[in-house]
Amino acid sequence: MLENKVAIITGGTRGIGYAIAKVYAQNKATVVILGSREESVSKALEKMHVDVPNAQVSGYYPNLCNEAEIEETFRKVHDQYGHIDILVNNAGVSARDRIYDYKVEDFEKTIDLNVNAVFVCSKVASKYMKEQGGGVILNTSSMVSIYGQPSGSAYPTSKFAVNGLTKSLARELGRDNIRVNAVAPGVTNTDMVSALPKEVIEPLIKTIPLGRVGEPEDVANAFLFLASDLASYITGVVLSVDGAAMS
Ligand code: NAD
């Protein structure tokens, strides 16, 4: 479904991001994984060569909020492969702090990675996409972008902002043939969720009509569809992949 496409995936070293990288590679995309550290990027590349033996895959670990570093990284990708067709802004951190003890700098850190980095990467990638006549930008939102959550307010705030960026950039970039969509996962089986205690997870599962948490692959398949030409007239949507969960 993605033959001859070059895709950059932030937070592609594990969890949902790795599942997206894997299904893209299985569908013949050239995949560039961005992670936060050299070690985690190397491990992800090794794993990918085992999971998808013919994968065309490389990786970098720039600071996603630093425009100069992103410009340099995306230039390298463009020099190496000749185009940038798909950007997946997936890297993110969650938050649990109560408002009473919330440090402003902790609030800002979450907003920095979850929102500012999406802006920076989209800004740099969209210039290449415009030049080459089109592209696809996909963002990882969350079901908390609909319901909020009862602690760690920076996290839902950041995902509301991701939805806002998605819809606004879809309107701004449509004329340049750049589609912009988001996927809003529900509770998904990754490190982010395995850190939660059983007492939190089990009652949560009971509220999900499909009766289970999502797997990273459930979410990755939505990213595959939205990146592909099957979604050629879809832009500005936030697609829930959450088993009809209601927070
Ligand atoms: P994860 O913790 O397994 O993976 C997070 C990814 O983000 C990793 O690849 C990590 O390298 C990257 N990352 C973290 N901090 C970074 C930094 N400072 N710089 C660069 N990269 C950094 O989590 P996940 O569950 O796979 O989350 C991926 C996305 O899905 C996030 O945007 C998250 O908000 C969203 N999400 C997750 C769930 C869930 O239940 N797991 C639900 C809704 C949305």
Q: Your description of this structure?
A:
There is one protein chain. The chain has 247 residues and is of the alpha/beta class. It has helices spanning 15-26, 38-51, 67-81, 104-132, 144-147, 154-173, 191-194, 198-206, 216-227, and strands spanning 6-10, 30-34, 56-60, 86-89, 135-140, 178-185, 238-241. Helix 1 (15-26) packs across helix 9 (216-227), helix 3 (67-81) packs parallel to helix 4 and helix 4 packs parallel to helix 6. The longest helix is centred in the middle third of the chain and has 29 residues, at 104-132. Nicotinamide-adenine-dinucleotide is lined by residues 11, 13-17, 35-36, 40, 64, 90-94, 113, 140, 142, 185, 187-188, 190-193. Nicotinamide-adenine-dinucleotide binds at residues 11, 13-17, 35-36, 40, 64, 90-94, 113, 140, 142, 185, 187-188, 190-193.
Mean pLDDT over all positions: 97
Backbone shape: globular
Task: Tell me the span between the first and last alpha carbons.
Answer: 34 Å
**What is the strand arrangement across the widest sheet?**
3-2-1-4-5-6-7
**What is the helix tally?**
9
Order of helices and strands: EHEHEHEHEHHEHHHE
Radius of gyration: 17 Å
Low-confidence stretches: none
SS class? alpha/beta
Helix content bin: 40-55%
How many E strands? Answer: 7
User: What molecules are bound to this protein?
Assistant: nicotinamide-adenine-dinucleotide
- Largest sheet, strands/sense/barrel: 7 strands, parallel
Please state roughly what percent of the residues sit in beta strands, choosing from under 5%, 5-15%, 15-25%, 25-35%, 35-45% or over 45%. 5-15%
